[in-house]
Model the fold of this input.
Amino acid sequence: MSDAFLSYIAYLQGSQEIYNPVLFFYQIMNAHTPFQEFLVLLSMKMLSIVIVDTILKFISRYYPKVELGLMVAITSLSVLVVIYDILLLIRFF
Done:
């Protein structure tokens, strides 16, 4: 696994000693193999899903009718992202 991916995992686990944002993004830009780059991008997408879910929970609390439209839009976008990731993964192997 790439150092950037391990650094990101350490950040998610709360270890501030290992995580260095500048080093992390430098390592993303200089991933040694396409598969390492894929792992880093996949972990970033997972983080973005968590952020979007948090925003949706906040919106649904105050605007329940808006939530359904946002859920449909985000679900269709997520399906497209998954298809794109599968195509990228096929290209790497």
Observations:
- DSSP finds four helices and no strands in the chain.
- The radius of gyration is 16 Å.
- The mean pLDDT is 69.
